[in-house]
From TrEMBL:
Pfam families: APH. It comes from the Bacteria. One of its GO terms (molecular function) is transferase activity. This is Phosphotransferase. The keyword NAD does not apply. InterPro entries: Aminoglycoside_PTrfase, Kinase-like_dom_sf. Signal peptide: none annotated. Residues 130-220 form the Aminoglycoside phosphotransferase domain. Keywords: Transferase. The keyword S-adenosyl-L-methionine does not apply.
Length: 264
């Protein structure tokens, strides 16, 4: 359930305003985003603005997601909004980042935004130290053995949830920001590329075209047949477990087609 600025505990609002250096005059609620109870673009009396998210600490999953976003904001400054500060008080964890604006990219066939998405995934590729973020492979342990999941381990920053509503094309149409890093993890360099390939198929690409796009991103060369097979298998098992064999078949069919196209 979403919470408005005025509904936050007074000490939380006061702590935010102290860090902003002035009173909040406008709290522009943001409807997108699923992991935080409070999401808003705050404007201050001095004319400044900042993007702020907040979750009750008692929300274990939401709190963990926001801590991942804090870590990712420090690790991927080239493609992620900069984390400005974060704190905990009165049972809330609050995160502030720079405001980035733009439109959602089009992932449809022929879209001029497709190379920008490839650029963002190229620029955002960076090695991160062990322990900086959760291991991506552990996310799938319910649907695959540890041996099966070995290829899903790696030392690279993974966004973990790339789709058109977690990306913004800037006003000049020259770059893409990747936002909402709540699912960030440490894993293989090719993973976000594969996930985005599936998103392209959802927007009308066939599997062969989606794979051709993936091959424009340099890190795709690190994807092995074994790793892609493991990724496809656990993703299919996960979808089936969540929504049943019948309802998951469209998504699973895309995954299988994408996998087949990688070796065609």
């Amino acid at each position: 359930m979403r919470v408005m600025w005025e509904e936050l505990p007074t000490p939380v609002r006061s702590a935010v305003e102290r860090r902003l250096g002035g009173r909040v005059t406008i709290a522009e609620a943001i409807e997108d985003g699923l992991t935080a109870a409070f999401i808003a673009r705050l404007h201050t009396v001095g004319g400044g603005e900042v993007f702020v998210k907040g979750v009750p600490i008692t929300d274990g999953d939401g709190h963990a997601a926001q801590l991942r976003e804090v870590a990712a904001g420090a690790l991927a400054p080239a493609v992620a909004p900069k984390t400005l500060w974060h704190f905990e008080t009165c049972g809330w964890h609050v995160l502030a980042s720079t405001v980035v604006t733009g439109r959602y990219p089009s992932l449809a066939p022929g879209s001029p935004d497709l190379p920008l998405m490839a650029d963002a995934l190229t620029i955002g590729r960076c090695r991160i130290p062990a322990g900086a973020l959760p291991c991506y492979a552990q996310r799938w342990e319910r649907w695959g053995s540890r041996k099966k999941l070995v290829p899903l381990r790696g030392g690279w920053l993974v966004h973990g949830d790339v789709h058109r509503h977690n990306a913004l094309v800037d006003s000049a149409g020259r770059r893409v920001w990747l936002v909402d890093w709540a699912a960030a993890a440490r894993g293989p360099a090719w993973l976000d590329i594969a996930d985005t390939g599936i998103r392209l198929m959802e927007e009308g690409h066939d599997a062969a075209t989606a794979v051709r796009w993936a091959r424009t991103v340099p890190a795709w060369r690190t994807a092995t047949a074994e790793a892609l097979s493991a990724w496809c298998e656990v993703r299919c098992r996960s979808w089936t477990a969540r929504i049943g064999a019948r309802d998951s078949e469209p998504s699973n069919a895309r995954l299988r087609a994408f996998l087949a196209a990688t070796v065609a």
